Task: inverse folding
């Protein structure tokens, strides 16, 4: 029966692969287990069906029949099967001398599927499609084709995360087309209609009349937490029974603070905590795919930009310690809030005689991205939109170079050089280093002597890279 199609393909595919890996290792086997740490540690491969998708090739098309049955006006179900091929081997026997037999198994299995991509056409010793494939697969006009999937490491990692197992070396394959053909249903007498009901929903474009407020801050501080401000919208057709409206501010969907209710003339939404552009943001309401004309909301205060956007907090560079702010509605008195890896920090803002605004960057900010907002001194502690300030590790100029037998040592000083993942970047090439607990110093030994002359070095701490500094290796 066609309902056995998925099982038939899995069985045939595993038999083909097993027939070939046994030619390399006679005890090799193919398992069909959910992969992970529970796989047996014997030699072979594991073939796991992790996804089944409908094929668009024959979707909603009348079934054209096969070699044993005539066509039907009912569509068949065409499927694409996605498998994960994972090599197996004894981890205790893998070493630099003999290598890893699991890698050999993977190579044999992949070459087999590469050389024999159409299961119906495979006729090998140990696997003959005429005997191995079920009658349903042999009768089908559709051939079963195997192709390697262009799945990147990120998607593979997601697959393993979905099955709650740590990632293991694996290759993804797609098998199509597998048809499941529905049986003709028995004739059943139609039911009797006892009551009719027609419900008419008037649908049209939502219409906006007013915003309250028409301008203001996106957010405020409540108990020290950034909290979105509400936006009231009035108009008509702002919802319908069984249909939820979507409110967009500056192109961003925002949540409703309460469901839309008849007569659908008012909505209250939460303003977004950040916007891509401003200070004017279009507000629209969309219902069943039909969007209203916009009304403009003016964001105030609006933080247009900050300078610098990256800082190493280098005391030798005054520009690193002062943040210049541009925007609208940045009225004194105000403070600047820094939300980042170390929690929130603040610094008082200043307004110069020429109207320019600035604030000192707190010297204790840790490495990483910090969201910078202006906080007004009003009763609500109104907040501007955020801008991102990247704090980098600091490497001081003039690192010390010393010679040890057969290699050079580099001693660097600076700030925020402590972390679990450290890389020393020499002339653009990263060298992994051990974890470092000293925020002010880092020593690194290269496994060779460096060439004489000028070089540039930077340090990458937990993904954050410092500015490069130059140093000179004297002639040997």
Result:
């Amino acid at each position: 029966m066609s309902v056995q199609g998925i099982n038939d393909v899995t069985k045939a595919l595993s038999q083909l692969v097993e027939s070939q890996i046994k030619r390399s290792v006679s005890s090799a086997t193919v398992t069909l287990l959910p992969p992970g740490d529970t796989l047996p540690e014997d030699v072979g491969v594991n073939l796991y069906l992790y996804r089944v998708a409908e094929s668009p090739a024959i979707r909603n098309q009348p079934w054209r029949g096969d070699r044993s049955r005539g066509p039907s006006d009912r569509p068949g179900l065409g499927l694409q099967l996605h498998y994960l091929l994972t090599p197996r081997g004894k981890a205790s026997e893998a070493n630099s001398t003999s290598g890893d037999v699991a890698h050999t198994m993977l190579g044999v299995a992949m070459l087999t599927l590469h050389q024999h991509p159409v299961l119906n056409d495979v006729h090998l010793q140990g696997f003959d499609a005429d005997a191995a494939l079920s009658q349903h697969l042999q009768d089908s006009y559709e051939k079963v084709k195997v192709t390697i999937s262009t799945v990147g490491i990120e998607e593979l990692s997601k697959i393993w995360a979905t099955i709650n197992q740590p990632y293991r070396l694996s290759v993804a394959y797609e098998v199509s087309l597998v048809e499941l053909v529905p049986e003709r249903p028995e004739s059943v007498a139609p039911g009797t209609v006892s009551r009719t009901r027609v419900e008419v929903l008037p649908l049209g474009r939502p219409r906006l009349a007013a915003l309250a407020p028409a301008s203001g801050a996106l957010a405020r501080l409540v108990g020290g937490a950034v909290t979105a401000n509400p936006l009231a919208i009035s108009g008509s057709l702002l919802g319908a029974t069984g249909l939820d409206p979507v409110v967009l501010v500056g192109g961003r969907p925002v949540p409703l603070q309460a469901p839309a209710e008849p007569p659908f003339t008012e909505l209250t939404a939460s303003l977004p905590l950040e916007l891509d552009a401003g200070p004017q943001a279009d507000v629209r309401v969309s219902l069943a795919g039909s969007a209203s004309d916009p009304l403009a909301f003016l964001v105030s205060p609006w933080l247009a930009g900050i300078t610098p956007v990256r800082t190493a907090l280098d005391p030798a560079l005054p520009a690193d310690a002062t943040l210049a702010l541009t925007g609208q509605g940045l009225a004194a008195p105000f403070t600047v809030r820094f939300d980042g890896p170390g929690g929130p920090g603040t610094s008082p803002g200043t307004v110069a005689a020429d109207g320019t605004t600035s604030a000192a960057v707190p010297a204790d900010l840790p490495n990483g991205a910090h969201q910078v907002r202006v906080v007004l001194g009003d009763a609500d502690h109104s907040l501007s939109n955020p801008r991102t300030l990247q704090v980098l590790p600091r490497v001081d100029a003039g690192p010390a170079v010393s010679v040890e037998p057969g290699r050079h040592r580099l001693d660097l000083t600076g700030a925020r050089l402590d972390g679990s993942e450290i890389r020393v970047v020499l002339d653009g090439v990263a060298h992994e280093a051990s974890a470092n607990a000293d925020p002010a110093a880092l020593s690194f030994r290269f496994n060779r002597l460096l060439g004489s002359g000028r070089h540039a070095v930077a340090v990458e701490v937990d993904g954050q890279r410092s500015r490069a500094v130059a140093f000179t290796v004297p002639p040997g």
Q: What stands out?
A: The chain has four domains: 2-180, 207-299, 302-391, 394-473. Residues 394-473 form a domain with the Immunoglobulin-like fold (CATH 2.60.40.10). The mean pLDDT is 88.
